[in-house]
Amino acid sequence: MKPLDVRDAAIIKAFPVGDYPKTVLDVGCGEGRLIYHLASLGFRVYGVDTRKYETWKNSEYLTFHRGSIFDLSSIPVGGASVVICGQVLEHLKGWRTALVHLLSLARLRLIITVPFKRSFYSPEHCNFWDDENVNDFVKFCKPYSVSISKTITKPEDVELGWFDYVIVVNKGEVKK
Question: How are strands ordered across the β-sheet holding 164-170?
Answer without folding.
Answer: 62-66, 44-49, 23-27, 80-86, 106-115, 164-170, 145-151
